Amino acid sequence: MERSRIAVAGASGLIGSALVRSLTADGHEVRRLVRGAPRSADEVRWDPERGSVDADGLAGCDAVVNLAGAGVGDRRWTPAYKARIRASRVRGTAALAEAVAGLAGDVRPRVFVNGSAIGYYGETGDRAVDESAPAGEGFLPRLCVEWEAAAAPAREAGVRTVFARTGLVVAGGAGAWGRLFPLFRAGLGGRLGDGRQYWSFIALHDEVAALRHLLDTDGLSGPFNLTSPHPVTNREITEAMARVLRRPAVFAVPAPVLRAVLGEMAGDVLGSARVLPARLLESGFRFAFPEIEGAVRAAL
User: Fold this and answer.
1) Which runs of consecutive H residues, i.e. helices, occur in the chain?
2) What's the number of CA atoms in the CB half-sphere (13 Å) around residue 278?
3) CA quadruple 183, 184, 186, 191: dihedral sign
4) What is the C-alpha separation between 70 and 83, in angstroms, rounded?
């Protein structure tokens, strides 16, 4: 992509901050969407849960990337928190899509990359799925369906619209892996449940590279799985973490304990999602860290 102006929602999160660093390092102009009063010309005010955005701040942007949303794994899924998870994604996406669609054609962004998740597919067991698979059942699949549907105004206005269905991001500082690394370093790591559930991961480096590939490549639209082509089981991840960190990983957390502590969210931890990035590979993208051990080493 030539030097561009790109608006990013969720710019302070794990993926968003890494994407902003990558874009600015290459000379692109980034406008960050913020919830408070803008403090500089590169900030645009919005409130995703109330569904409002300063549309004028998006005028003249070449692209909009929406990675915002309340953390799915941040706390127990009470009814109130599930409502917040949904509102932050569905209302926020709808507000951005409507704002983009409402702009005049000469200042309207050309592409809208919207976050989504492999939670779309629900429980897949040992069965590998790609973007052609239907949505699963449960809270996360329903959320992802609504989340993606909320982008309809942008797509209907002729804006190239992409859904980045992201897997578990391997990174050292935050996210799920940010919680795993300290445990394994302390020798307290281990498998969760029986360890046979598939975790479809992606290195943070590859996540950012894939998002930029989706931004840069004309003609790409619809859903793309942002996951390594080699998903592995929780047991295999445990073994890889132990090898890389040179620590024992003999502990295991039984499934009943996880369910007692995490409630409904335990289904996401114990569930198996064997997801493949078929469309991403077909589009010419190449992973720098396709294997779990390389992804863990890159995170360190």
Assistant:
1) 14-25, 79-102, 139-149, 152-156, 175-185, 204-216, 234-245, 255-262, 266-270, 278-282, 292-299
2) 10
3) positive
4) 10
Task: Calculate the alpha carbon distances from 110 to 6, 101, 292 in Å.
Answer: 10, 11, 35
HSE toward the beta carbon, residue 41, CA cutoff 13 A? 2
Token pair of 10 as six digits: 């969720």
**Residue 136's Cα: distance from chain center in Å?**
18
- At residue 32, what is the residue type? R
- Tokens at 97, concatenated: 């899509």
Per-residue tens of pLDDT for the chain, all 300 residues: 678 999 999 999 999 999 999 999 999 999 999 998 888 889 999 998 888 999 999 999 999 999 999 888 777 778 898 899 999 999 999 999 999 999 999 999 999 999 999 999 999 999 999 999 999 999 999 999 999 999 999 999 999 999 999 999 999 877 777 777 887 888 877 777 888 999 999 999 999 999 999 999 999 999 999 999 999 998 998 899 889 988 887 766 655 644 554 455 445 555 789 999 999 999 999 999 999 999 999 998
Largest CA distance in the chain: 60
Q: How far apart are CA 69 and CA 86, in angstroms?
A: 8
